[in-house]
Structure formats: structure tokens, C-alpha cells
Amino acid sequence: MLKRAVKLQGGECPQLLVKGQAFPVKRDLYLVGFGKAVLGMAAAAEEILGDHLIQGIINVPLGIQESLQRAGMQEMLLKPRSKIQVIEGAKNNLPDAEALKGAVAIQELAEGLTADDLLLVLISGGGSALLPAPIPPILLKEKEELTKTLASRGAAIQELNIVRKTLSLLKGGGLARLAYPAQVVSLILSDVIGDPLDIIASGPTAASSHSVQDCLQILAKYNLLHNLPQSVETVLSSSPTKPNAPEDYSHVCNIIIGSNTLALEEAKRQAEGLGYATLILSAAICGEVGCVATLYCQLIWLVCLGFAGLGEGPLGDEVRGNLRQLVAELGIPGLNLAKFLQALRGLGPERPVCILAGGETTVQLQGTGKGGRNQELALRVGLELHRAQAAEVSSPPGRCEIVFLSGGTDGQDGPTEAAGAVCSLELVDEALQEGLDVEAFLSNNDSYTFFSQFQGGHHLLVTGLTGTNVMDIQAILIRATERL
Ligand SMILES: Nc1ncnc2c1ncn2[C@@H]1O[C@H](COP(=O)(O)OP(=O)(O)OP(=O)(O)O)[C@@H](O)[C@H]1O
Ligand SMILES: O=C(O)[C@H](O)CO
């Protein structure tokens, strides 16, 4: 994605070109980065920048270089004798001493820049844990404990990162302020619904749209306000001790070079190239995984009804009513369901249909099994389709072939080596023939174990680390299997 967005134009005064915007490289070009996908971004950037790059520092997840090396993904690794220093840390996405060391090094580099320098900042998901910079006297351990407790109490990423920004020297625009007066150009892979610049990796180069009040409200919401460490009380009660620097961000340009929306648009182009009539439902799918599975099943049923010429009848009306209720329950931001359903009406059985969507579901873990939200979603869709078919007491209206895929774009899904999984209408029956009870696996959140066993693991989606991280993607393929 970075190679598509970034070019360097040489000459008397080199220009960094990013998605049509030009930034003069007046003197020296520096690079910093932090996030799960930043190593691959830095490898691409290094190739483009060549000798123009003076120095770089990137903070990446512990062990990522070794795992990419083992996977033979050389294009995601820096060249030998690279000018970019790599610091690995934040094991299990939690800030640690190594990540703190890297954050200090990045802070020192930024503070030393002049008005003639250009700082390229590479940001991706996982960046918050990889750029810890607690405002003194807050200790790293205190900040880590606070954010871990918030997460365990169900705080959304937006809430987590508002608290992180308030307690950080570098988040919430702090890095950009420290880099002043250098030109700052941030290249961002968004892993947050809606691509909010000041929430992605806690917005180190974006003006924060939140206040200490917002932070206090979040801490109160999760019953944390009255047992905070003294250091956190001190910071919250005094005006944030950010370095004196201009409040304006005219020296900063934040550019999203990868997002779920961009990924879905590319997937749409690919699907249409394969002959599918393709629609994008949303890049903001959110909510409990079971409810989202029901939403997808109802959508699939509506397409099958349409193929059978029953879409405009009472059955179709019933399904559309269910969809409106589910979308309202999930609270999917920006989804215009009426417009989507209107577009769906235009699809007939003469062409196979592809429905694309993306975002991040939530899974309330009840069991002790192994899995991820994408594998769980695929298994739940398989079960929902089976139940809908049983309720229809026949095969789906109009005899359709259905395939559902859900995958994490970073190539990982939960603590497994799978990125996600694929299911079909026949999954539950075929599993039963192998003695596998889908409901039992789901009740134990054990989707990985199921897909590893079912049909020799062929329904597991295993991509390896992809070098990007723009949340999760779902693809639904529906084909009429007989002339209607
Ligand atoms: N056994 C399981 N079954 C279903 N979902 C699980 C299971 N174990 C963990 N999860 C879910 O996986 C999610 C963690 O996924 P993952 O490790 O891919 O990190 P992530 O949240 O996607 O991080 P990033 O956004 O940086 O990639 C958690 O939200 C958790 O609910
Ligand atoms: O690092 C983070 O804050 C999350 O991945 C959201 O960007």
C-alpha cells in the first residue's frame, strides 16, 4: 500500500510525493514508526527514499522479524546495514521496557529536528502499545495496569485511547509538537472504524479532539476514578504537562494510505473482474459476533429469495424487517441500509453475487477454547444458515451455492496462526458426518479447534502475516445453482 501512495522525485530539491501531495526535502529526511504493520511499511519506504534517508527508528512487535524471516517474507524486512534502527517490544500488545526505550529514542530524534528537516512517521494498529511515554511522575507499569483494567472492563478502543492520550507525552499530537518546526508527514494504516486520526494508535501526530474531562468521564464510567495511582491523580489534576509548542499543526500532514474502506474497494474491483455483481455493505461492521452472524445470514437469505423471484413478497418483507432491526441493534455507523437493499433488488440469478463488508466484531468469551473473532463469525454464520434452512424446511429458496469468508487483514485472528475461516451452507451437516458438533465448539469459543479438524483444516484461512492491519474483512459469494 505504501509503495502505491509514496514516490520520491529526485533533482535539485527532492520532493516527497504522497497521494498527489508534494513535500520538499529541503535538507535531511528522517523516519520513525510504530505499529504491527510498520516493519513492512519501513522496508517499502527505505526502498523509495534510498540515500535521502538519514536515520530512522521503528518500534515493532516482539519477534516479528524472526517470524517474517521464517516465513520467507523478505520484502517485509529491512535491508542489511539499513539506516533504520528496529526496536522490538510490546509483547502481547502491552507496553514494556523495550517499547519505552524505543519511544524515548523517537522522542529524542524528534526534538532534534530543524525547520529544514522532514520527518516521515509510519503509523499502524498496535501503535499505542509500541509508543509508551507516560507523563511523569506516572510510571510505565501504572499506565499499563490502568489500560489493561480498562480493556478488561470492556472499554472500546476509542475510550482506551482517549485515556492513553491524556496520560502521554507523545500521544494526542505530542510527537508532532515535539518535532516542530520540522515538516511532519504521517502515513497511516487505519485499524479503527471511521479512520479517526486522533484515535488510531492514539494519534501521536494529530490534534486531539478530546479533553481531560473526556478522560475523567471514561474513568468514572468504568469505576476507576477513585482508585487511581497518585501519579495519575497528579497528572489529571494539573493541566497536562505537554512541552510548550505551537497548538497549530500546520507543519503536520496526516495521510491515510490504508484503511478497511480502501481494502474493500480493491476487493470489489477484484470480484467484479471475476464476474461477480459486487456490493459493499459497510466498512464499519461492529457489535457482538452472534448478532453480526445473524445479519449476514439474513442478507444471504434475501439474495436467495431474490434469485427465486420471491424477494418482493411477504418473505422478502419479513427478512428486510429483520435486517432493519439487526442494524438498529448493532448501531453500525454510517450504514444506509435502505440504499443497500435498493441496490440488492437489482441483482438477479444470471450473475453470481459478492457482498463485501469490514470492521471489527466483539466476542464475549465464555469458554476456554482457542479461536478468533473471524473464525467464530464464520462458524456462527454456518450455524445460522443451517438453522434458517431447517426453518424453511427445505433448501434455501431458489437453490443457491453460498460461501462466507471472514479474515483479519493482518493475517492473524486471535491467538492463532489463522487469519480467519470459510463456511458454506452445508457446513453443519458435513461436520456432523465427521462427528463434530458445531454448537458445542461455539459454546466453548473453540472455533480454531473446529476448523483445524473439519475437513482436514481446509476451511481455515491461513495467509501468514500480511504487513498490513486494516481490521477484518468479510466476503459473501452467492450463486444460483439451477435455472430459475
Ligand atoms: N477463543 C476465542 N474465540 C473467539 N474470539 C477470541 C478468542 N480468543 C480471543 N478472541 C478475540 O480475539 C480478539 C483479539 O484479536 P487479535 O489478537 O487479532 O488482536 P486485535 O484486537 O485484532 O489487535 P489488532 O487490532 O491490533 O490486530 C479479542 O477481541 C478477543 O475477543
Ligand atoms: O494501537 C492502537 O491504539 C490500536 O491498534 C488502534 O489504532
Descriptive terms for the model:
484 residues, alpha/beta, six-stranded parallel sheet, globular, binds (2R)-2,3-dihydroxypropanoic acid, nucleotide-binding, Glycerate kinase, EC 2.7.1.31
Structure, described:
With 484 residues, the protein is α/β, with parallel strands linked by helices. Helices cover 39% and strands 21% of the residues. It has helices at residues 2-5, 38-49, 64-70, 97-111, 127-130, 140-152, 157-166, 174-179, 212-221, 230-237, 260-273, 289-307, 314-330, 337-345, 373-392, 427-433, 438-443, 447-453, and strands spanning 6-9, 15-18, 21-24, 29-34, 53-61, 84-89, 118-123, 183-189, 252-258, 277-288, 353-362, 400-408, 420-424, 460-461, 472-480. It has a 6-stranded parallel beta sheet, sandwiched between helices. The chain has a 6-stranded mixed beta sheet with strand order 10-11-15-12-13-14, with helices on both faces. The two termini are 42 Å apart. 51% of the residues are buried. The structure holds adenosine-5'-triphosphate (ATP) and (2R)-2,3-dihydroxypropanoic acid.
Arithmetic mean of pLDDT: 93
Number of H- or I-type helical stretches: 18
Strand element count: 15
Name the assembly state. Answer: single chain
The N- to C-terminal Cα distance equals 42 Å
Family: Belongs to the glycerate kinase type-2 family.
GO molecular function: ATP binding; glycerate kinase activity
Catalytic activity: (R)-glycerate + ATP = (2R)-3-phosphoglycerate + ADP + H(+)
Enzyme class: transferase
